[in-house]
Amino acid sequence: MLIYNMSIKDKKIFPSLPFSIRNSKLLKAVITFSSNIIRTKLFNTNAKRGPLFISWLCTYQCNARCKFCSTHEMNKQFPESLSRERALEIAHEIGRAKTWVVGFTGGEVLLWPHLFEVIKVLKKYGVRVYIITNGLSLKNNVDSIIKSGIDTVVVSIDSIDSQEHDQNRGKEGIYSSLMEGIEQLKNKRKGEKPTIKSTTVISRKTYSGIEKTVDRLSGIVDVVSIQPVVTDYANGPHNISEEERSSFFPEKSEEPLIIETLRRLAKKYPSFNNFYFRNIATYWFSPEKLLKLKCWSPFLRLLIMPQGEVSHCPANSKYSKKVGDLKINNLMEVWNSSEMKRHREEIRKHQNGCICWSQDASFNAFLYSLPFINKLPIFKKRS
Ligand code: SF4
Q: How buried is 169 (Cβ within 10 angstroms: 0-12 exposed, 13-18 middle, 19+ buried)?
């Protein structure tokens, strides 16, 4: 799980980013964004700066067994992982490439032995860092989290009913552990850093209680976020069986109820009132209506897998194959690889014909909702 405006506290959140934009090093981000858009989207030539966003899926290992997730199975299939030395080098490459944000996900990130060392390197370069954790071992890592300078800790919370959450996550006691961890983090942190954000997957199982969940979580964490259940991720963590899929994905008959639930939530919490959130039901029931959105993924982000392979999109089999391998190449070589350029060429002409609605690609929805981006003729490239 990885990035949109679902926060409900005071803050103005860059849609889906797990931190407040007012605290970020905006100038660096704007230069990296503009430089990449001009060089890669307009001209499809070599980028001078690295991707704006990097999602680093650092381990497939997990200490939970979430019903909608098969990451631990991936661990058997792809056991190889990056060495400590190479992971640290990659962190330096990311820093030098002027990447704005790196989000660590898994698996369970706190099981990755190199996590804090790698984050310390990134922080030396001023990179914004967030981690996404299931919270089971949060309380044992509070000091390391604070010391490493992590900006945001995102904790996955499906329900405020502890039994329901434990059952969904396949781990007894995980709810009480994560709540203890959150409390310890709040008590020990200085000021509001790291920001504590919850993320709740809205699905067939959770939508009826989602309002209650948001109400309760808003009193516990700094920022509350929601993302729809998604699947079809090749080599990604949420590739689930058909049987499990039907238990998480709502049926067409539930559409009116879901639309009404989301509408009520957006009314109660204005920060949910954005394009990404409002279109969760469209994504589930009429995804073809969203095909008009352009994909910005190959111009803005990369996804690093545990074994060092890199892709920019785990959701479409056409683009989920690796564009490079960080065991062999450096980050900028991968970002400027011929495979990356081939993907860019198709996607800049809007020939991809796909849509995704996970948080990590919600910048597509955000950029679509900016009127000026869509009015500029240079961005209206068609095949
Ligand atoms: S819109 Fe398509 S190519 Fe772009 S990130 Fe989503 S699935 Fe991948």
A: buried
Going along 170-251, which residue ranges are E strands? 195-202, 223-228
Residues with CB under 6 A from ligand 1: 295, 297, 313, 315-316, 319, 352, 354-356, 361
**pLDDT tens digits for 133-177?**
999 999 999 999 999 999 999 999 989 999 988 988 888 999 999
For ligand 1, pick from 354, 362, 366 the residue to mutate: most ligand atoms within 8 Å of CB.
354
> How far, in Å, CA of 244 to CA of 325, rounded?
32
User: Is the pLDDT at 12 greater than 50, yes or no?
Assistant: no
Residue 67, CA atoms < 13 Å, CB-side half-sphere: 19
Mutate to test the pocket of ligand 1, among 291, 312, 313, 355 (most ligand atoms within 8 A of CB): 313
Among 273, 294, 298, CA closest to 376: 294
* DSSP-assigned letters across all residues of 327-341: TTS-HHHHHT-HHHH
Lowest mean pLDDT among 49-58, 66-75, 117-126, 132-141: 66-75
354 Cα–ligand 1 center, Å: 6
Query: pTM for the full model?
Result: 0.88
CB-side exposure of 36: number of CA atoms within 13 Å?
A: 29
CA angle 20, 300, 34 (to 5 degrees): 80
pLDDT recorded at residue 235: 42
Both structure tokens of 271: 């920060």
Q: What is the DSSP letter of 322?
A: -
- Contact call for residues 53 and 363 (beta carbons, < 8 A): yes
Helix (H, G, I), strand (E, B) or coil at 130: strand
Alpha carbon distance 262, 258 (integer Å): 6
Contact 108, 134 (CB under 8 A): yes
Mutate to test the pocket of ligand 1, among 319, 349, 363, 364 (most ligand atoms within 8 A of CB): 319
Work out which ligand 1 atom sits closest to the CA atom of 354: 2
Name which of 348, 221, 357, 237 is nearest 287 in CA terms. Answer: 357
Kindly state the tokens that stand for 223.
């920022």
Torsion of CA 208, 19, 296, 92, to 10 degrees: -130
